[in-house]
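pasting for the record
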Amino acid sequence: MARKKFKNISPIRKPKIKKGDTVIVTAGKDRGKQGEVLRVYPTRARALVQDVNKVFRHSKPTEKSPRGGRIEKEMPIAISNLKVVDSDSVAGRVGIKRVDDGKGGTKRVRFVKSSGQDLD
């Protein structure tokens, strides 16, 4: 029988957090820490944030690292535990609105709901 990779996780159709956003952690052991999003995993509803959720991985000696030992690295954190921070350092949820692009059409723009400031 094949083992399930990710149990009890519903994928996010289109996450509102993107690579390069500055976010703040709202829950967990790293609550209050800020960092930049390095990668987003929509199928697992997680994001990799710089200097957040660090863990030690133990490795055997190999040709690349002859000493082996403990390697500290970041692990993905749930997107539900993150809030986007705008340029005024105001954290909030992300909304999407359509604005006129000047060419007779509209374009999709992300904004922080608490301050109303655009992210894109």
